[in-house]
Amino acid sequence: MSAPTFDYTYPSKREDAGWSDAQTPLLPGAHPAVAEDRRKIRIRRICHFFFAFTLFVLVIHVLSDTVRIQTSRALGFDFKAMADPEWSIPEGVSIVDCPAWEFGEHSDVGTVSFNFALPAAELFALARGPRSHGTIQIRQSDGETDDVRVNVEMHSDAHGGFDHAKVCLSKRKDEDDSVGVGIFTDHWWDNHHHRGHNHHIHFVVELVLPKHNEVLHITKLTTDMPIFTHNVDELADAVSFDSFNLHTTNAAIHTGSVHTVHGVVRTSNAAIDGVYVADENIALRTSNGRIAASASAIRADIRTSNGHIEGEYSASRELVLLTHNGPINAAVALANDPDGPPTEVDMTTSNSKIRVNLNLTSTKGSSGSFVVGARSSNAGLALEFTDAPLDAALQLNAHTSMGSADVRLHQTYEGSFTASTSHSRVQVQMGDGEDQGRGRKSISVTRHTGSYVEGIVGWSDLGASRGTAHVSTKMGPVSLWV
Ligand SMILES: *[C@@H]1O[C@H](CO)[C@@H](O)[C@H](O)[C@H]1NC(C)=O
């Protein structure tokens, strides 16, 4: 059910009518003086008409507003409050019901709860308004149940505050099979700081998912709740999402574990952590905050700025680890299907270290192709390829400046390599590669100055043409194991 709206085209139509009246030509053949009198009368009439009309429009406006409120009150909905732009209901969302707060023994804690069947298309939670902040916990029910349960607690040290906050059952206007919970606070709060106690208002939201004895399938879960810390339980074994979307700002997102096909987890100025298993894509995004997670997907996109990236990341098609002014400290696993395109990882930061272990695997046991990029500046870079299949093709570009570049390729690496720096030394060492059952790899260095080394390594000419590895820094030593 959506709030009624005014038809504002009505007054403008009437104004058009009045205007065309004023354009009516004078009757022909009248005496000039009489015509002048008539003109005055006509102008006065028009003025009267406009005055009466304006009054009429005003009265209709006020009356219909009153009638509307009376009607909606009688129906049990406070439509006036919800239609008011003060409540910042987002576009595309319609309000279904906003039950009254219930109070227990503490008048500073109000609660509202909902129970509803899991919607087929989308389950969502959203928050808007100047004092809408707090925490949301997403967990599964302890006992078996078919229903979703949402519990909302509002803590306010100003009792009047409960008139200026609402929790409403909502819907997407374009999706009948959606159910959401909306938390709204109005702008009354802007003028009622209550001597600095305004921070003592917060919401505690609990979203309790149904539970059956088999894995629960949820098509889509969305939160859009700025300044709500998100706590997600360990759900990966019990719930499978097609689409898992968490969005907040200025608040952290902690996820025990989650399993989804697609996932987008976004905040700002705060950390993201947790275990994210995606069958297709996962994106973890924040800024000015740390990402410390474990994420695996076909494509994984991990981005922050002014914060660390750490944890374990795996992808079979593409992995991005991107930050600025924050170190990247991670274990990366790439799995490539040799019959498909290469698997790529791009690791970028600035003014901070990169220290990453990479484990490359092939879905066919051997070969596969991998594209690895690592770039920083003003800091050291250390990559270690712990494992890679025989006959794999690696294209590596690893560059930094004002720090050391330290790259240890896998025992099975075959291909060309360059290592370069300025104002410092390059050292190239060869692992023996012997325990791979092919004997010792052969290495040939084709160019060697103190700060630049170029060469080829492999078991065969074919192998030696497979990979390329470029490692460089400026004003720092390079060491490369091939
Ligand atoms: C690399 O990954 C494979 C497959 O997951 C695993 O069996 C192997 O132990 C890993 N190697 C290292 C050095 O972690």
From TrEMBL:
<dbReference type="Pfam" id="PF24016">
    <property type="entry name" value="DUF7330"/>
</dbReference>
<feature type="compositionally biased region" description="Polar residues">
    <location>
        <begin position="418"/>
        <end position="427"/>
    </location>
</feature>
<feature type="domain" description="DUF7330">
    <location>
        <begin position="316"/>
        <end position="428"/>
    </location>
</feature>
<keyword id="KW-1133">Transmembrane helix</keyword>
<keyword id="KW-0472">Membrane</keyword>
<keyword id="KW-0812">Transmembrane</keyword>
<protein>
    <recommendedName>
        <fullName>DUF7330 domain-containing protein</fullName>
    </recommendedName>
</protein>
<feature type="transmembrane region" description="Helical">
    <location>
        <begin position="46"/>
        <end position="64"/>
    </location>
</feature>
<feature type="region of interest" description="Disordered">
    <location>
        <begin position="418"/>
        <end position="445"/>
    </location>
</feature>
<dbReference type="InterPro" id="IPR055754">
    <property type="entry name" value="DUF7330"/>
</dbReference>
